[in-house]
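User: tokens in, sequence out, please.
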């Protein structure tokens, strides 16, 4: 039999799994349900990440404000690695739709699903047509030639393509891009506070923290601010910001990671230039000193 899929490994890739990346990108999007086409144990990894995040929030005396969306596993078994697991996946998808009535399903594939070559897209397409519920799939499969950020940014891209459409801009509105502990985290709260000094409103944090019904706000934002980061995180989020600017005219700031007072000053002045409010930026700097 001819080989249809070739996977290349690179030393530049980190040794991590793409499935938690898919999960994290949509974990708090109300109306979504995530299905791991995997053995049951794989879902435990993502759930552990979520539980640890919640405990960290509580340990910092922050009131937990969000509940994560359902995470299911197709519960592949040893025999599925021989005979294929598409029947088990189809059963899981039907259960997810009939039980949770989601606005969208996301499927993350495990190493096992990738090795045996399960045709996940065909199953997803068939169930989507039957139930008229959008189902998004990703090409990456666990550790198999992929890693965490492959899953995170591929599902982010699919959300943009499927649900975000051109719309009227909301004046003085900002979209935060990235995670950094979520809307209740210190980083996002501080960014939101400073942006309010400029008279602009944060209307969402994408991906991961906007309900499925709110995704139209992504294109409505006048501006986007990439929450700080370096490496793959920053590269991926910057690409998202560039796409928003190209398709929807959303101006963005992504060059500065405001760690330390000097970079914070640079960040505030850059916000002022992006908004066309340089004088106000000077006033904000004085208030922050």
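Assistant: Sequence out:
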């Amino acid at each position: 039999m001819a080989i249809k899929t070739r996977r290349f490994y690179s030393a530049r890739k980190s040794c991590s799994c793409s499935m938690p990346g898919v999960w994290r990108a949509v974990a708090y999007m109300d109306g979504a349900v995530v299905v791991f086409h995997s053995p049951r144990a794989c879902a435990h990894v993502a759930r552990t990440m979520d539980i640890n995040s919640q405990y960290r929030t509580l340990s910092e005396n922050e009131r937990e404000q969000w509940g994560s969306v359902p995470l299911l596993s197709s519960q592949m078994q040893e025999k599925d690695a021989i005979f294929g697991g598409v029947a088990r996946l189809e059963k899981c998808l039907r259960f997810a739709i009939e039980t949770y009535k989601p606005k969208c399903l996301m499927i993350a594939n495990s190493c096992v699903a990738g090795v045996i070559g399960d045709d996940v897209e065909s199953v997803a397409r068939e169930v989507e047509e039957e139930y008229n519920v959008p189902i998004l799939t990703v090409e990456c499969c666990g550790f198999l030639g992929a890693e965490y950020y492959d899953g995170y940014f591929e599902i982010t891209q699919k959300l943009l393509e499927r649900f975000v459409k051109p719309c009227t801009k909301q004046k003085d509105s900002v979209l935060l891009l990235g995670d950094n502990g979520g809307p209740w985290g210190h980083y996002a709260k501080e960014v939101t506070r400073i942006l309010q000094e400029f008279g602009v409103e944060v209307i969402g944090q994408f991906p991961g923290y906007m309900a499925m019904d709110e995704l139209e706000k992504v294109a409505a934002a006048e501006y986007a601010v990439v929450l700080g980061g370096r490496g793959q995180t920053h590269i991926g989020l910057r690409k998202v910001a560039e796409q928003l600017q190209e398709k929807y005219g959303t101006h963005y700031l992504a060059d500065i990671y405001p760690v330390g007072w000097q970079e914070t000053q640079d960040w505030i002045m850059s916000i002022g230039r992006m908004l066309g409010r340089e004088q106000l930026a000077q006033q904000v700097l004085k208030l922050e000193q």
